[in-house]
Amino acid sequence: QVQLVESGGGLVQAGGSLRLSCAVSGRTFSIYAMGWFRQAPGKERKFVARIDWTGGSTYYADSVKGRFTISRDNAKDTVYLQMNGLKPEDTAVYYCHVHGPRDYWGQGTQVTVSS
């Protein structure tokens, strides 16, 4: 079993910044990649960012490219999402994701961006 603990969500004004963290415990020996998804009210869960665990290659949704940065600390089994230049349309519940032999999800953390 794998457990994910997220932190860093909150309320910010447009143009502000937040950093989300996701720490993984349990059977972490075979992680392929970690990433972030988000789900706004009434919308489907959408991909935000991904980082490959071994090589560190990163991938971003077009809507966040240039504003968000995903990074990792393999020794701590932790992934981060630095979010700069936040916009009201970034408001959503953000979910940490582990991609491996099985897929795991965090509980979600609310990010709210006011105008």
What features would you highlight for this structure?
115 residues, mainly beta, seven-stranded mixed β-sheet, four-stranded antiparallel β-sheet, 0% helix
What letter string, H or E per element, gives the SSE order? EEEEEEEEEEE
Q: What is the CA–CA distance across the termini?
A: 40 Å
Instruction: Report low-confidence residues grouped into runs of 5 or more.
Output: none
Report mean pLDDT, rounded to a whole number: 94
Question: Which of globular, elongated, flat, extended, rod-shaped describes the shape?
Answer: globular
In percent, how much strand structure appears in the residues? Answer: over 45%
Percent helix: under 10%
Radius of gyration: 13 Å
Biggest sheet: strands, sense, closure?
7 strands, mixed
**Helical region count?**
0
Number of distinct beta strands = 11
Structural class, from secondary structure content? mainly beta
Short structural description:
With 115 residues, this protein is mostly beta strands. Helix content is 0%, strand content 57%.
Describe the structure.
It is a single chain. With 115 residues, the chain is mainly beta. The protein is built from no helices and eleven strands. It has strands spanning 2-7, 10-13, 18-26, 33-39, 46-52, 58-60, 68-73, 78-83, 92-99, 103-105, 109-114. It is globular and about 40 Å long. The model has no long low-confidence stretch (mean pLDDT 94).
List the helices and strands and how they pair.
Elements (H helix, E strand, L loop, with lengths): L1 E6 L2 E4 L4 E9 L6 E7 L6 E7 L5 E3 L7 E6 L4 E6 L8 E8 L3 E3 L3 E6 L1
Parallel strand pairs: 2-11
Antiparallel strand pairs: 1-3, 3-8, 4-5, 4-9, 5-6, 7-8, 9-10, 9-11
